[in-house]
Amino acid sequence: MAHDAFGLDGSVAVVTGGSRGIGEATAVALAEAGADVAPVARSEDELAETATRVEDAGSEAHPVALDVTDSAGIVALFDEVADALGPADVLVNNAGTNPFFGDARDLDTGTWERIFAVNVRGAFECAREFGSRALDRDGEGALVNVASVGGVRGLPGQVPYVASKHALVGMTKTLAVDWAPDVRVNALAPGYVKTDLTEGVRENESIREDLLSEIPQDRFADPEEVATGAVYLASDAASYVTGEVHLADGGMSAN
Q1: Which residues are catalytic?
Q2: Which of 149, 201, 215, 244 lies 20 to 30 Å from 222, alpha-carbon distance?
Q3: Could you check whether the bond before residue 87 is cis, i.e. omega within 30 degrees of 0?
Q4: CB atoms within 10 A of CB 124
Q5: Residue 239 main-chain phi, psi, to 5 deg
Q6: Whole-prediction pTM
Q7: Domain spanning 12-247 has what CATH number?
């Protein structure tokens, strides 16, 4: 049988923010490609559905409750996954937050710090632990940082979120250089996706119509349409791809 370059049989994947939206869809898509998956989120109860869907896809699931701002918990996470499923071959850094929309003059420092704690520091500490273990065992690894179209362009009213996603893209490119050739590091940059994170803008008719006017495909994405990009970047099909930003934005950044 020919090698399936998109297959992940025998791989172990960790997906942060894995209880809903893009994270849940990615965990399931990785499982469908053959990986055993550890979905990670703050609420153990919310992870139950993801774990069930991973198992329904024929893979083993090991859900872990964790806030990615918990530095000690991140170390314990990778120990636990290694014991339950084996060393992680893939990390999808998807946990993120975006609680602010408005004029930058109204932004308080605490909100800025919370956004960066999750979107940048949490992602970095997960990446550092994952990369360190992969490099120490002389193994290969694939790290996918879920950024945003806001990591390559400005988005009105979202200064801290856009700043954090630009930082994540910069981190991606530098880690790709530092960890090559053993660990590939790429960013997946979705546009507007039908998730809880975008519910507010999707429900505001004026904002929604303004956004759709910028998206050549004239619609928001389903989470599954973004998850396929994570599978590609995690697989051997992307074996010569590192340090890149894979956009899944319906043409928004090209417009």
Answers
A1: 161
A2: 244
A3: no
A4: 17
A5: -65, -20
A6: 0.95
A7: 3.40.50.720
